[in-house]
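Translate sequence into structure tokens.
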Amino acid sequence: MNKIIEKVYFSENVARLVVEAPMIAKSRRPGHFVIVIADEKGERIPLTIADADTAKGTITLVVQAIGVSTRKICALNPGDYLADVVGPLGRATDIQRRGTVVCCGGGVGVAPLLPIVKGMKEAGNRTIVVLAARTKDLIILEREMREAADEVIIMTDDGSYGKQGLVTNGVEEVILREKVDEVVTIGPAIMMKFVALLTKKYEVPTICSLNTIMVDGTGMCGACRVTVDGRTRFVCVDGPEFDAHKVDFDEMLMRLKAYN
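Result follows.
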């Protein structure tokens, strides 16, 4: 069992939990995820690790209350325990010194983007972050991103904060003003699809994280099948990150409808 140390709400349905998990905190790398089970009757929920503190032996998870199990997790408070937290799982992000890296995220996809931004910066890259949401209240981890990155651009659909527009508007703004060596995108599948279409036009290598389609998280259930470069891949064991220009997003979006 893993004790919850801290809980903060970003919005009505999105909570940040700091959880005791010393072994995971010590071994995790950017891009890794964990499987969380709220109680003995709970289902397996894959969650990407948003941060870790090796000194305190904790990891940070950002959870959006959508279904029964995620609502159970979000309902827990400091002092309560999660039945299981297993990990780190998946393949870590390939972080190298490339030059200028644009990291763009939407919604709760900003959470797994944070350790990647930190890793890219530590590797010597110039890091530019584009955060996008429908409205100001849904922007998360802005302070942490500003501390980690060289520049942060905020985009909101309604123009209530930052600049009005979509994440692609922010990414294109950067591409048009300076050389971008890589783009990393994490968020809703439809967002990542259009980021990939944009960066392919400008021939900028792009990595996407497909963690939203995972269920079991260990390769047993097959629910996270995606087509990458014409071949079937399993997000949980082959990813969760792939070359965004080779992902069949239309197929992925069709399969995601099963969860509606």
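Note: The first strand starts at residue 2 and ends at 11.
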